Amino acid sequence: MNLVDVTKMVQKTAPMTAVTQSIELIVQGLEILGIAVIGIAFPYATVRAIAHISQRRIDAYQQLKIFVGKALQLALEFLVAADIVRTVTIEPTREGIVSLGLLIIVRTFLSWSITVEIDGCWPWQVARSGRV
């Protein structure tokens, strides 16, 4: 391999490296957003719940549960988006795609569990009954 071949190879990979780095920054931003949602929502929900309890509201626990559940669902959405972008654009390997599939299954199960905890029924039962 001579200097001309090395130069051509560097020129071909340099733009991809910049694109890959940009995508990695986007992925990190999505992950930070997901973590920030959890990091901000939990203290806020705690302060809000304490205020509701001090006001002797009977639905304080229910409101806390709903708020925390919705925050967790939003955070999960950001984290799943980050995993999808990373796997599809940066690491499109068979192992990465299988790993992504398993992660999405687990996170979907978590999201459904949170929905059941908040609504008291499965997501498709809410749609059928007309509740929103």
Please give a quick description of this structure:
The chain is an all-alpha fold. It has 4 helices and no strands.
Features:
132 residues; mainly alpha; 4 helices; 88% helix; 0% strand; flat
Structure description:
The chain has 132 residues and is mainly alpha-helical. The protein has one domain. 88% of the residues lie in helices and 0% in strands. α1 runs antiparallel to α2 and α2 runs antiparallel to α3 (94-119). The longest helix has 52 residues, at 3-54. The protein is flat and about 60 Å long. The chain starts with a helix and ends with a helix. 6% of the residues are buried. The mean pLDDT is 82.
List the helices and strands and how they pair.
Elements: H1 3-54, H2 60-90, H3 94-119, H4 123-129
The number of distinct structural domains comes to 1
How would you sum up the major sheet? none
> Which parts are unreliable, with pLDDT below 50 for 5 consecutive residues or more?
none
The count of helical stretches stands at 4
Distance between the termini: 65 Å
Order of helices and strands: HHHH
Into which percent range does the helicity of residues fall?
Answer: over 70%
Total E-strand runs: 0
